[in-house]
Amino acid sequence: MTDMSTPTSTAPETGARSPEAAGIITDARQRIDDLDGRIIGLVQERMAVSAVIQHERVTSGGRRVNLAREMEILAHYSDQLGKPGTALAMTLLELSRGQI
């Protein structure tokens, strides 16, 4: 009788109990790693675009941060992703503001 609480030797790093499941998990993890790379690239691109906006706003005599726009972004993320979306938007805004 096998103890089902311990993974078999087929793929202990995935937690799978069959080679088929281990393969699916490994492939899905690679897809997540690829998506994370794309997300990081998009965040870096967002930061660069935000820096352009801030520079133009400040050099034209405006404020560096536009709180009304930030509230729009927070609402959008919240509408799409719920409460965790708000936290994600806050992190993106913090990264995009740079040093204040």
Structure write-up:
It is a single chain. With 100 residues, the chain is mainly alpha-helical. Helices cover 71% and strands 0% of the residues. The chain has helices at residues 19-59, 67-81, 83-97. The radius of gyration is 21 Å and the shape is elongated. The N and C termini lie far apart (62 Å). The model is unreliable at 5-9 (pLDDT under 50).
Radius of gyration over C-alpha positions, nearest whole angstrom: 21 Å
Oligomeric category = single chain
Distance, first to last CA? 62 Å
Number of helices: 3
* Contiguous uncertain segments of 5+ residues: 5-9
The rough form would be described as elongated
Q: Which band does the percent of strand residues land in?
A: under 5%
Please state the average pLDDT score.
89
SSE ordering: HHH
Derived structural class: mainly alpha
Record field, number of beta strands: 0
Q: Level of helix content? A: over 70%
The profile of the biggest β sheet is: none
List the helices and strands and how they pair.
Elements: H1 19-59, H2 67-81, H3 83-97
Q: Tags for this entry?
A:
mainly alpha; single chain; 3 helices; 100 residues; elongated
Quick synopsis:
This protein has 100 residues and is mainly α. Helices cover 71% and strands 0% of the residues. The longest helix is centred in the middle third of the chain and has 41 residues, at 19-59.
